[in-house]
Design a protein that fits this description.
The complex is a heterodimer of chains A (161) and B (423).
Chain A lengths: L1 H15 L2 H17 L1 H4 L5 H18 L11 E2 L8 H14 L3 H11 L5 H8 L3 H20 L1 H4 L3 E2 L3
Helix pairs in contact in A: 1-2, 2-4, 4-7, 5-8, 6-8, 7-8
Chain B lengths: L3 H12 L8 H37 L28 H12 L5 E11 L3 E9 L5 E9 L5 E9 L8 E6 L17 E6 L5 E6 L17 E5 L8 E7 L9 E7 L9 E11 L2 E5 L11 E4 L2 E9 L3 E6 L6 E6 L5 E6 L4 E4 L14 E4 L12 E6 L10 E5 L8 E6 L8
Antiparallel strand pairs in B: 1-2, 2-3, 3-4, 5-6, 6-8, 7-9, 9-10, 11-12, 11-22, 12-15, 13-14, 13-22, 14-15, 16-17, 16-19, 17-18, 18-21, 19-20, 20-21
The chains are: A mainly alpha (161), B alpha+beta (423).
Chain lengths: 161, 423
């Protein structure tokens, strides 16, 4: 648990965009893993199983309004001063991730952070390889648009998670 | 535009500052315990709901066979069944009086005492006669004498342990004792079954539209039904049981031949088939004094043949399909006359008169009068059905025998009433 907690927490953070929720998500994932441990002991790929629980729990929580904050309205962001470019860029990336639907976000994180192949990502997400391609492509497209034109993106409506 | 590598680096940089807080192992284990407890509770609740559903379903819905009927304990040598009907004291008194007029009876108890739409009054009594023999007697109203009760049959009491139904099928239930009612239609069947039977059904092979399939509702264990042209030999009394559960299916508790024997009725002498040679069968009739050549041999479905010879404890019967077998016949209801002749395995109705109303259509029932009856139409026996519609101008038509002559195990030989009631 100790060895995997940190990496899982970071993946969960990229999925949730919030440290508290990431902790919650990882603990829920590991609790489910502990409960299923007698069965998992015979399994060869525990990491794959844990990652799948993490993604499934994240996607199902996102569907639940009670857990995930829903936007009450649209907040129009004004242009921010360009004082700390690196900080600004992380902030834009976080906001851009927040703007992605849950499964697109999971696909992007699995493919470009966890470096999973399309086949492995498909197994974790429980979908076909074609769906993974489509989800990650659309997610990447959205990220690139906001990455390149952070200034322009500020004029768009930003959806807070 | 970021390359996948740049995106990976950016994501890693974004996630890099995230570090686990202390005490997360304890929190994970606590959550796991809670999750286990929740799952156990949910599992137990689901199991309880399933069990409740299964129990409820089993209580409401019938699966498997219906429970077996439990026989009532016998009342000495009599049936221990509770009485059916209104058990009107006046009706009982009248029936007992009628019975005692033929000799005193003791320990009389009612099996049926009911008013009925068809027969007006029906009483069935059990009691000892003056020789202390247990007897069973049927009484019905005489329509020609202000519905006064008449004794129709006085039989030995049936076995109180094995009997499941008692019945009487006769055309002599509505007029003076021993006299038939007004023709073919005035034949009735009375049946009373053991407790636990939901409904009793009377079917006869003399009526084409005999009831089949499940009854719509439980009519009870006592019935009176019209059975035109029927005799005890052509009647089947069926007892059906339906458990008081949803979707429960009717179960046949018994299906037995009807009982006859009212004063004046022809009597069927049952004989087992012991031999068969060509177009003849030989049946065993030990001690049957009343069997004579010329009498008809029947089964429930119809005519088998005619007694050609009577020996010691045996009777030889010429089958209807044997060459030389000839008997006057007529079609049922339409009354087209003719003569049925066996033609070496076949059956032909011939000598059909020409005329407008002398048509015979495929499937028409052809019957023969029973010489043991006192009337051409009462208890007429079905010999066969027209295999095809009679051609215009033709005077014959081929018949299909009603009885299955290839599978005869037991037949009844119809003998005339010998003046003794019921024994």
């Amino acid at each position: 648990m100790r060895a995997r907690y940190g990496p899982l927490l970071r993946t969960a953070y990229l999925l949730c965009g919030d440290r508290g929720r990431a902790e919650d998500l990882v603990q829920a994932t590991l609790a489910k893993t502990v409960v299923a441990w007698p069965r998992l002991q015979r399994s060869e790929n525990v990491d794959h199983y844990v990652r799948r629980i993490l993604i499934n729990t994240f996607v199902s929580w996102r569907r639940r309004r009670s857990w995930w904050e829903q936007p009450l309205g649209r907040l129009i962001e004004g242009p921010a001063p360009d004082e700390y470019a690196a900080v600004d860029q992380r902030d834009w990336l976080r906001r851009a991730l927040d703007a992605l639907p849950a499964r697109q976000r999971a696909a992007v994180v699995l493919r470009f952070y966890e470096d999973l192949s399309e086949q492995d990502a498909a197994r974790v997400l429980g979908c076909s390889v074609g769906t993974v391609k489509s989800l990650s492509s659309r997610g990447l497209q959205t990220l690139r648009r906001q990455w390149v034109e952070p200034g322009a993106a500020a004029e768009n409506e930003v959806r807070y998670a | 535009m970021p390359s996948p590598t740049e995106l990976h680096d950016s994501l890693a940089e974004l996630a890099e500052p995230v570090r686990p807080t202390d005490g997360y192992e304890g929190q994970v284990l606590r959550r796991a315990r809670r999750l286990r407890a929740r799952r156990r509770f949910a599992g137990a609740a689901a199991a309880a709901v399933c069990l409740a559903l299964v129990v409820t379903t089993l209580r409401l819905v019938a699966f498997g066979p219906a429970p077996q009927l439990t026989a009532s304990p016998p009342d000495g040598p009599f049936l221990g069944w509770p009485a059916v009907g209104e058990v009107d004291a006046d009706l009982l008194r009248e029936a007992t009086g009628v019975w005692n007029s033929a000799g005193p009876h003791t320990a009389v108890r009612a099996l049926v005492a009911a008013r009925d739409q068809l027969l007006h009054s029906v009483v069935v009594l059990q009691g000892y006669d003056q020789r202390n023999s247990p007897r069973l007697a049927f009484f019905t109203s005489d329509r020609t004498a202000g519905d006064a009760l008449r004794l129709r049959v006085d039989r030995p009491a049936p076995d109180p342990v094995t009997t499941r139904v008692v019945s009487l099928v006769s055309p002599r239930l509505t007029g003076p004792a021993g006299r038939a009612g007004d023709g073919f239609w005035d034949t009735y069947a009375i049946a009373v079954a053991m407790p636990g039977v939901s409904t009793v059904r009377v079917s006869t092979t003399t009526v084409d539209d005999e009831m089949r399939g499940d009854p719509d509702r439980a009519k009870g264990r006592f019935v009176v039904e019209a059975a035109p042209g029927a005799t005890a030999e052509t009647t089947t009394v069926t007892g059906l049981v339906r458990p008081a559960k949803l979707f429960a299916r009717w179960r046949t508790a018994f299906a037995v031949p009807g009982d006859g024997g009212a004063d004046g009725d022809a009597r069927g002498v049952r004989g087992k088939v012991v031999r068969r040679s060509g177009d003849q069968i030989v049946v065993a009739i030990p001690g049957a004094q009343a069997v004579r050549p010329g009498q008809l041999a029947v089964v429930a479905d119809g005519l088998v043949g005619r007694v050609s010879e009577v020996g010691r404890g045996e009777a030889t019967i010429a089958l209807i399909t044997s060459a030389g077998f000839t008997i006057p016949a007529h079609t049922n209801i339409s009354n087209v006359p003719g003569s049925v002749r066996g033609a070496g395995g076949k059956l032909v109705m011939e000598r059909i008169p020409a005329g407008d109303k002398m048509e015979i259509y495929e499937g028409n029932r052809v019957v023969v009068s029973d010489p043991a009856q006192r009337d051409d139409h009462l208890g007429a026996v079905t010999v066969g059905r027209a295999a095809a519609t009679k051609a215009t101008g033709a005077d014959s038509v081929e018949l299909t025998p009603a009885a299955d002559l290839a599978r005869l195990r037991e037949v009844s030989i119809m003998t005339p009433f010998d003046g003794r009631s019921g024994d």
